[in-house]
Each structure stands twice: as structure tokens, then as C-alpha cells.
Amino acid sequence: MASSETIRTTSRAASTLVWDPLVRFGHWALVAAFAVAYLSGEDEADALHVWGGYIVGAIVVLRVGWGFVGPRHARFSDFVRSPLVALAYFRDLLYGRARRYVGHSPAGGAMVIALLVCLAATVATGLIAYGEEGKGPLAAVLVTDANANGNEAEHRAPAKTGREESESTIGELHGLLANITVALVVAHILGVAVASVVHKENLVFAMITGRKRWARE
Question: Which pLDDT tens digit goes with each residue over 38-59?
Fold first, then answer.
């Protein structure tokens, strides 16, 4: 009868480390930070919303940098493919015949890029909207510009000042981008579920342990 140590050794030999600690911890920290920021978004001045947004922005910047200097499977060069390749993989996945990738699949890579872009845009518009309220790192620049524009507009009598219109537009865009990000997250979860079934592999667990079933590439 095989010992427990032999079983553990065999199991580890049949798997390979794919996701490094920064990718794994960054992934789950991003999930938590975005959830906090989104769920506290009714009051955009709420401290939870603001600091959740700051953390999301910091993780996105770190992940983008890691995509150029990190280990093999963390790099964009390992998983970014053309839209046609990503669509072909998605089609094959729906038919249950998609090729298995040890790292991100072409569709998974496309989702990574889409999420990073939407998250970055959401944070950027949030910073601008917050700065126009005289708060945050952009406050000094945006308030100065708004005051200058406001002085020029004093001689006019519009229904809304340019600053109010700008705040309204940026705030609405911020909310729209956040909702688009949520839609992408839902699509991502569904994609992970389908890929886990097709490839007979628990991809959520793999993002926790960092290990996936070994395969020749």
C-alpha cells in the first residue's frame, strides 16, 4: 500500500506551478477590492468606495507591470492572441473540443485585457470625478481649472455651469464603466465554469494553489 508521502509526491509530480504568488494574491485582492468599491458606490464619497478604488488602481498598475517582467505565464506575451484566435477558441469551447492551455487560453487572455482596461478606465474616471469635488490626488489641478472656467462663465447664464455638466458626465461614465466591468466579471465566471468542465480541471482551485495538471507544451 502506497504511503501518504508517496501519494503526495506523485500528485505534485503530475502538476506544475503555473500562477506565481503575485498573480494569485493580486487576483483575489482585486476581486475583494472591486467588490467593496462597487457595493459601496451609492455614495461615491464613502471612504470604503474611495479606498477600494485606490486599491483596485494600484493592483491594476502592478499587474500591468508584472505582465511585462513577471514569470512566463504571467506575461502578456504568453496569452495575448488576436481576436480571431480568441473567438475560435471560444467556439471550440462551446463545442467541447477546445485545446487545453496550461496558462491562460486565448479567450481567457482576451478577458484579462478587457478587465484591466475597464478597471483602469473606471478608476481614472472615479479619480477625475472625485477631484472635481476638491478631493483626492487630482483635486488641486481640477479645482484650479474649474475655478478658472467658472470665472469665465460668470458673465453667462446657462441652465448648468460647465463644471456641473462635466461632473455629471464623468460621474455617469464612471458608473457605466463599473457596470460594464461587472458584466465582464459575470462572463469571466461563466467562462471559467465552462472551461473547468470541458478540460476537467478546477480552475478556481488552480488560482488558489497556483498549480495545474501538467502537460507538454
Answer: 999 876 668 899 999 999 999 9
Instruction: For 124-139, write each residue's pLDDT tens digit.
Output: 999 998 888 888 787 7
Q: Where are the domains of the chain?
A: 17-151+158-213
Q: Which one has a higher pLDDT value, 18 or 167?
A: 18
Cβ atoms of residues 5 and 41 within 8 Å: no
> Which backbone phi and psi does 17 adopt, to 5 degrees?
-75, 120
What are the φ and ψ backbone dihedral angles of 48, each rounded to 5 degrees?
-65, -45
Q: What's the CATH fold of domain 17-151+158-213?
A: Fumarate Reductase Cytochrome B subunit (1.20.950)
For residue 192, give the amino acid letter.
Answer: V
Its sign, for the CA torsion 16, 28, 179, 174, is: negative
Residue 160, exposed/middle/buried by CB under 10 A (0-12, 13-18, 19+)? exposed
Total residues belonging to the chain: 217
Strands (E), the chain: 15-17, 211-213
Tell me how far apart the alpha carbons of residues 26 and 29 are, in angstroms, rounded to a whole number: 5
pTM of the model: 0.83
In tens, the pLDDT along 183-195 reads 999 999 999 999 9
User: For the residues 9-29, what does the mean pLDDT come to?
Assistant: 84
6 to 1, 49, 82, 117: CA distances (angstroms): 10, 49, 43, 45
